[in-house]
Design a protein that fits this description.
Elements (H helix, E strand, L loop, with lengths): L1 E9 L7 H19 L3 E8 L4 H9 L4 H18 L6 E4 L3 H16 L3 E11 L4 E3 L19 E10 L5 H10 L4 E2 L1 H12 L5 E2 L1 E2 L15 E2 L1 H6 L1 H4 L7 H6 L4 E5 L3 H15 L7 E4 L2 E3 L15 H8 L1 H11 L6 E3 L1 H31 L11 H22 L3 H22 L1 H4 L6 H22 L5 H9 L36 H18 L11 H5 L3 E11 L7 E7 L2 E7 L7 H4 L3 E5 L5 E3 L2 E3 L2 E2 L1 E4 L2 E4 L11 E2 L1
Parallel strand pairs: 1-2, 1-11, 2-3, 7-12, 11-12, 13-14
Antiparallel strand pairs: 4-5, 4-6, 6-8, 9-10, 15-16, 15-18, 15-24, 16-17, 18-21, 19-20, 22-23
Helix pairs in contact: 2-3, 12-13, 12-15, 13-15, 13-17, 14-15, 14-17, 15-17, 17-18
The structure holds ligand ME8.
Ligand ME8 binds next to strand 1, helix 1, helix 7 and strand 11.
Length: 639
């Protein structure tokens, strides 16, 4: 059977973090399991590069967008490799193979009348790359509960995609295909959204040039989401590629809940308009939240350096922790303390200890050789029956995109194995020569159970079979999933090794000390923005910086960020609107002498003309206005 699984293509605006890692690791586990089951798997991930926010962030870093994304995409590739991600392809939307498919589809939709030209007037949230109508905004800001940032008013000529035309057809499809949108709670949300009425979607922009050009009207670039969704077929070489014919439709688009609407409404409608079959399943998992509660995301500044985490703990523990912590249909919590705890309890203790002590007993009681087993008792039968149930349960859970529950099943087996050691007590059997055959059965069962454990862990922690293999005589037992329910596979006489613990315990005291040290050094060097490109002294001299005294300050109505200041600059009085209301109360500012960029072009903010800009330093979430302490009079130049 073929199996096509995709992750979102991520924005390369910053390095991948554990949130993006979760989606990729979970998709990887599903892909690995299917490969082990003998399916013909195609696993796709990649990067979504033609976004307006990429232009902005590159500009801020003083780089051109191409150079900027190349660098970050390199980090994505590197991290995926370090995390043992087994993707078959990595698509970048700046690649020609993608652009040509996007243009072909845009052309076709235009030709058939599903795309038409008009004018867009409405709001845009650049961080979310989403258009919003005024009535959907939340107090004038982006209504996405995880965003809430400022939106920009756009008025530009645009192409529109006739979403509304397909509304009923999509609702009918969702009703007839209950597996299409999962989990059920998200399916219900999507149905509600569609029933609320779909508006035609703006699918081109003219105010910047970064992106894929509309083929017949090159002053337009294709809207980033239309462009991005098409990656799922462009990577397969749509419309004629062999892979397209072989793998489409996707079996699962595995994504986060934040982008459900794009995948279960916009994308299916594009496919319907093109007459292409729809993906079999769109699964939206929850978010990793920080302990304090917010989503783990770069913009919240609560992400940890993934490379550093990997260096400290290695790929398998991170994979295990993330997969185990994200409960089906809800959010997961991420903290390094919890990671250390899981590593010590589940990996070092339950799994690692079982491996070490069973091997040690084979060494001690049978000179390091797997013995010939005698006949099974109820204990062996029970263990063997359980392995069949666990194997089936893992398959079933993974089919419904629930790696946490699948791992729980695997751990049921591990617990049973540990109990089996205590119940059989080989140290007692070894004392009694009459119980030699029984001892051999138990030791044999240990060795064979390690083989099974290697298989059961392989999709989730591909390093585990690698670690167990040399201990069990070097044979590669672990690639075939079906072997997880078969027993008596390992050959009696196989020479085993004890080796190092497969998951060494983390010394918690040392961990806490290192964490402390790392925090201190991080605080020292935190988030320094890259310096901008060089300018000459003449360039700098163009900026007229003046000392001004704040005479009055008040909040600007209906905003929580802006203050309106009246400042004295020599004999002149000016009005300034400044975005510092979250850091200063009006009273704190009155009387302060601060620095003004006096020759900045006046700008209208909330209907008030601002005649300049106050200088402030910011770091992390802190902000401090630059103020003078001595007697320099207002109006004085700052040079
Ligand atoms: O949305 N917890 O890209 P993106 C769990 N380019 N998963 C998380 C997460 C968290 N805290 N943070 C991010 C885009 N993710 C578009 C996609 S697809 C055609 C275009 C994961 O870089 C999760 O899978 O913002 C989420 O959907 C995705 O990263 C968003 O990645």
């Amino acid at each position: 059977m073929k199996y096509y699984i995709t992750t979102p293509i991520y924005y390369p605006n910053s390095s991948p973090h554990i949130g993006t890692a979760y989606t990729t690791i979970a998709a990887d586990a599903m892909a690995r399991l299917r490969r082990m089951k003998g399916d013909d798997v195609y696993f796709l991930t990649g990067t979504d590069e033609n976004a307006q926010k990429i232009v902005r962030i590159a500009e801020k870093a003083g780089m051109d967008p191409h150079t900027y994304v190349d660098e970050i995409v390199g980090k994505f590739r590197e991290l995926w490799q370090l995390l043992n991600i087994s993707n078959d392809d990595f698509i970048r939307t700046t690649e020609e193979r993608h652009a040509k498919v996007v243009q072909n589809i845009f052309d076709r939709l235009f030709e058939q009348g599903d795309i038409y030209k008009s004018e867009y007037e409405g709001w845009y949230c650049t961080p979310c790359e989403t258009f919003w109508t005024a009535n959907r905004l939340a107090e004038g800001k982006c209504p996405n509960p995880d965003c809430g940032r400022e939106v920009e008013l756009l008025k530009e000529e645009s192409y529109f995609f006739k979403m509304s035309k397909y509304q009923d057809k999509l609702l009918q499809y969702i009703a007839e295909n209950p597996e299409f949108i999962q989990p059920v709670s998200r399916r219900n949300e999507m149905i509600k959204f569609i029933e609320g009425g779909l508006e035609d979607l703006c699918v081109s922009r003219t105010t910047f040039k970064w992106g894929i050009k509309v083929p017949f009207d090159p002053k337009h670039v294709v809207y980033v989401w239309l462009d991005a969704l098409i990656n799922y077929v462009s990577a397969l070489g749509y419309p004629d590629g062999e892979n397209y014919h072989k793998y489409w439709p996707a079996d699962v688009h595995f994504i986060g809940k934040d982008i459900m609407r794009f995948h279960s409404i916009i994308w299916p409608i594009i496919l319907m308009a093109l007459g292409i079959p729809l993906p079999k399943k769109v699964f939206g998992h929850g978010w990793f939240l920080s302990r304090e509660g917010g989503k783990i995301s770069k913009s919240r500044g609560n992400v940890q350096d993934s490379f550093e985490l990997l260096r400290r703990y290695g790929s398998d523990p991170i994979r295990y922790f993330l997969l185990r912590e994200m409960q089906y249909g809800t959010d997961g919590t991420y903290s390094e303390d919890d990671l250390v705890e899981r590593l010590n309890s589940d990996l070092a203790n339950d799994l690692g200890n079982y491996v070490s002590r069973t091997l040690a007993m084979i060494v001690k009681y049978n000179e390091g050789k797997v013995p010939n087993p005698g006949s099974d008792t109820e204990l062996e039968k029970e263990l063997k029956d359980l392995s069949v149930r666990v194997k089936n349960s893992v398959e079933e859970k993974m089919l419904s995109c629930d790696p946490a529950a699948a791992l729980e099943s695997v751990w049921q087996f591990i617990s049973r194995c540990n109990k089996y050691v205590d119940e059989t007590a080989p140290w007692n059997l070894a004392k009694d020569p009459a119980k030699r055959e029984r001892l051999h059965t138990v030791l044999y069962t240990f060795a064979d159970s390690l083989r099974i454990l290697g298989i059961l862990c392989a999709p989730f922690m591909p390093g585990v079979p690698e670690k167990i293999k040399p201990l069990l005589g070097g044979e590669d037992f672990f690639g075939d999933w079906e072997q997880a329910e078969k027993w008596n596979i390992i050959q009696p006489g196989t020479v085993i090794r004890k080796g190092e613990p497969i998951f060494p315990r983390i010394d918690v005291a040392q961990y806490l000390a290192e964490l402390n040290a790392a925090q201190v050094s991080q605080e020292k060097s935190q988030d320094l923005a890259p310096t901008k490109e060089e300018i000459s002294i003449d360039d700098f001299a163009k900026v007229d910086l003046r000392v001004v005294k704040v005479l009055k300050a008040e909040k600007v109505e209906k905003t929580d960020k802006l203050l309106k200041l009246e400042v004295e600059m020599g004999s002149e009085i000016r009005t300034i609107v400044s975005g510092i209301a979250q850091h200063y109360s009006p009273e704190e500012l009155v009387g302060k002498k601060v620095i003004l960029v006096a020759n900045l072009k006046p700008a209208k903010l909330r209907g008030i003309v601002s005649q300049g800009m106050i200088l402030a330093a910011s770091h992390d979430r802190e902000l401090e206005v630059l103020a003078l302490e001595k007697e320099i009079p207002s109006g004085a130049q700052v040079k």
